[in-house]
Specification:
By secondary structure, the chain is mainly alpha-helical. It is built from 13 helices and five strands. Pfam families: zf-RVT.
C-alpha cells in the first residue's frame, strides 16, 4: 500500500503516518500510547536530536519492537516522500488492476467477460449488459420475489411473466427486434438467453465484425430495456420498426466515431452493417430524419 519514506522527518507524523512496518502507531501502541508523553501532532523530526531518538523508556513489548526499529533509522536532509508498496516490493507505477487483486484477491475469470467488456463498446450498453448477464436488472419476477405488489406480465408483450430470460428473447416483441438485428450480423436469432450468450462467446468472424456484432447485441439489450422502462414509467410505446431505427442510428454513429482513430476498422464495420438488403430499407427511412455523413454514405 502507500508507504511513507523518511528523509528529514519534518512532514511525517509519528502517530498517524504509515512510516513504520507496524502501520499507524496510534493503533499499534494501544493501550499504552497515552503513557509515552509524545504529542499527538509530533513529527519524527521533533523526536530526533543529535542522531538519537527522544523516546521514553519502553514499558511494553510493542514499544520494545518500535525502539528496535528506530535504531535502524537515521534522518537525512532530504524531504519525506510516499511510495506504493505491495507485498514488500516497491511499485514503479500505480496499477489499479494490481491493487484490486491485492485487496480483493484473485477472482475466477468468467467466460463472458470479453462479450460484456468488448473493445469499442458503448459504456452504458456494456454496463447494462453486465447487469443483465448477472440477472441484476429489476425485472418483474425479481420485484415479486422482493415482496412488491406488481403485475407479473411482460411490459413488452403483456402475454407472459416477465423475467430476464423471457425478456431476452422469448418475448415476441424482443425476438422480432433481435431477429432483424441478428440478420444484419449474419447470425441466427435464438430465443434462449443462454444460447444467445454462448453464441456471442463463440463468434469466429474477423475482429471488426466481431466487435460490430457485440455492439449490436448490446445495443439491442439496452434499447429493449429502455423501451420496457418507458412503458412502465412514462406510458409511452414504440413499435418494433421505430426502435430498430433508433438502434441502427446509434450503431452507425458509434462506427462513425471511430473514423479518425481506427479508420480501417470503421470502414470494415460500416460496410458490413450496410451490406444487407434490409439495411438499405432501414437506411432509406433513417436518413430522412438523420442524414448519414457524406463520407460514409453508401455509393
Amino acid at each position: 500500500m502507500i508507504k511513507r519514506r523518511l528523509g528529514d522527518g519534518v512532514s511525517t507524523r509519528f502517530w498517524y503516518d504509515n512510516w513504520s512496518p507496524f502501520g499507524q502507531l496510534d493503533s499499534f501502541l494501544k493501550p499504552a500510547s497515552s503513557r509515552l508523553g509524545i504529542a499527538k501532532n509530533a513529527s519524527l523530526a521533533s523526536l530526533y536530536q543529535g542522531g538519537n531518538w527522544l523516546i521514553p523508556p519502553v514499558r511494553s513489548e510493542t514499544q520494545l519492537l518500535l525502539r528496535i526499529h528506530l535504531t535502524t533509522l537515521s534522518l537525512t536532509t532530504d524531504a519525506d516522500f510516499y511510495e506504493w508498496e505491495m507485498e514488500g516490493k516497491v511499485l514503479e507505477s500505480y496499477s489499479m488492476g494490481s491493487m484490486y487483486t491485492f485487496l480483493c484477491g484473485d477472482r475466477a475469470s468468467v467466460s463472458w467477460a470479453k462479450v460484456v467488456w468488448s473493445s469499442f463498446g458503448i459504456p452504458r450498453h456494456d454496463f447494462l449488459a453486465w447487469l443483465t448477464v448477472l440477472n441484476r436488472c429489476p425485472t418483474r419476477d425479481r420485484l415479486l420475489s422482493w415482496g412488491l405488489t406488481v403485475s407479473p406480465l411482460c411490459l413488452l408483450c403483456n402475454s407472459a411473466s416477465e423475467s430476464r430470460d423471457y425478456l431476452y428473447f422469448i418475448c415476441p416483441y424482443s425476438h422480432s427486434l433481435w431477429s432483424s438485428i441478428a440478420r444484419r450480423c449474419n447470425l441466427v436469432a435464438h430465443h434462449s438467453w443462454e444460447d444467445t450468450l454462448t453464441q456471442m462467446q463463440g463468434l469466429s468472424s474477423s475482429r471488426p465484425i466481431m466487435r460490430l456484432t457485440l455492439i449490436a447485441v448490446k445495443a439491442t439489450i439496452y434499447w429493449l430495456w429502455s423501451e420496457r422502462n418507458s412503458r412502465l414509467h412514462r406510458a409511452t410505446f414504440k413499435g418494433k420498426e421505430s426502435l430498430l431505427l433508433t438502434i441502427d442510428r446509434q450503431i452507425r454513429n458509434r462506427i462513425s466515431s471511430l473514423r479518425v482513430s481506427h479508420p480501417a476498422t470503421s470502414s470494415a464495420m460500416m460496410q458490413h452493417w450496410l451490406a444487407t438488403p434490409q439495411a438499405s430499407v432501414i437506411l432509406l427511412y433513417s436518413n430522412k430524419l438523420f442524414p448519414l455523413p457524406q463520407t460514409l454514405s453508401p455509393s
